Amino acid sequence: MTTANPQLNDHGELIHLLSLEGLSREIIHDILDRAAPFTAVAEREVKKVPLLRGKSIFNLFFENSTRTRTTFEIAAKRLSADVINLNINTSSAAKGETLLDTVDNLAAMQADMFVVRHASSGAPYLIAQHLAATGRNHIHVVNAGDGSHSHPTQGLLDMYTIRHYKRDFTGLTVALVGDILHSRVARSQLHALVTLGVPEIRLVGPKTLLPAAAARMIEKGPLRVCHDINEGLKGADVVMTLRLQNERMQGALLPSPQEYFKSYGLTPEKLALAKPDAIVMHPGPMNRGIEIDSAVADGKQAVILPQVTFGIAVRMAVMSMLAGGSQ
Amino acid sequence: MHTLPSITELIDQLTAQIRPHVRPDTVLVGIHTGGVWVAEALHARLGLLTPPASIDVSFHRDDHHLGSGLKAAGQVSHLPDDVAGAHLILVDDVLYTGRTIRAALNEIFDYGRPARVDLAVLVDRGGRELPIAATWCAYTLQQPLPASQSFNLQRDTNGELNFSLSEK
């Protein structure tokens, strides 16, 4: 239970997907390679393959998210799994049941996989550890976002998108723009970008929205902090904008959304500083007019909707890797 | 040890068997990877109009439980746009248990309902585990090949095909 990486079994195979931290470059590329054929499934007459036929996948969403839950549900259904959606806010948790009691009850219903979103960082780890401690390693856990810690499938689909358009990571300049402090997406992206060998990663945002830890990492890795967006975007190949997470902010970290847009909102003028073939990404949902201008969001360089489509294939790859065998 | 006729003989033999039965719109569907090479060779000899298609059966394999999870990354199937009503000839290098053919049929039907599907293979090594038979087969082994052995089709850098016998 106290192995170095609870995501891997003794043979180094993925049994849970909890975080991109600690996953090797080989494993990440392997997941992306497996995702590629799944993109074609949606183009068939029958948009289903039988890899997870007969498996029960429980979507445990302790925090709301329509898009992520829906893409996980579509991915599981295209793999022929049975999907049970639990909106925990309105169910037993509201009656006082603990997280692990909920898990035990669902495990007693022969669950094969939990897809977990939780407002507390580490909740999916807790579930995975609990399953391991009680000898139920055949039940898999996928982290669908925990607090401000990690959102590994989003990080993977972003890497898939970059690889799709740019082919190779080792010559890229990538700019992450916005609310990096509160963003689990940014954390997952950073781990993956560093692991995949991106030589220059710029963290662009106001001092109040950049984590103190980033400043410590700078000396070692390819990370650079830019408080000036013009400097941050110059010559970039990939611009990853982040959502301003008002719901996670406590205290006045920003003067006002209008002020933020003026300094850090991605406009066509600012984007012109990046390479002409730079791609613009956003994990959604977008705040138009705050972190991104509509002209950019709907522009030629935006790959925001392809990100959503690739996300389904990436989640299919992850789920079929974890539970494709009955062991 | 089994010795097979040369690849050229096998492909010529298979071509002769298939030729009377093809229509101009017949589509050859090679099963990854060896079957794709054989389909390309047959296509050139038969002079069909429609380019050969290819199929990957990873999504329909029935042996996932023997390992853990989906193994290697698969290839993408490239089937014609209108599978419905088409005459397809599945092409593979070696016919063994029949499980690959079962998976390929399932994969095809995910794209539509063909009018007819035939199976053409270079070698039938015996050892069937499902009720599947080839429509055309260039060479059938008199005695089934032991399970510990397998024929592997390879293609060298010049595009020349070659069978080798390997021991597990």
What does this structure look like?
The complex is a heterodimer of chains A (327) and B (168). Helices cover 37% and strands 14% of the residues of chain A. Chain A is of the alpha/beta class and 327 residues long. In chain A, the strands form two sheets. Chain A has a five-stranded parallel β-sheet with strand order 7-6-5-8-9. Chain A contains twelve helices and nine strands. In chain A, helix 6 links the parallel strand 5 and strand 6. Chain B is of the alpha/beta class. Chain B has a single domain, classed as Rossmann fold. Chain B has three helices and seven strands. Chain B has a five-stranded parallel β-sheet, with helices on both faces. In chain B, helix 1 packs across helix 2. The model of chain B has no long low-confidence stretch (mean pLDDT 90). Chains A and B meet through helix 1 and helix 12 of A and loops of B.
What structural class do the secondary elements of chain B suggest? alpha/beta
Average pLDDT number of chain A: 90
User: Quaternary arrangement of the chains shown?
Assistant: heterodimer
The biggest sheet of chain A, with number of strands, parallel, antiparallel or mixed sense and barrel status, is: 5 strands, parallel
Report the uncertain regions of chain A. Answer: none
Largest interface: A-B, 26 and 22 residues
Please tally the β strands of chain A and state the result: 9
Strand composition percent of chain B? 25-35%
The shape of chain B is globular
Secondary-structure element pattern of chain A, one letter each: HEHEHEHEHEHEHEHEHHEHH
Number of domains of chain B: 1
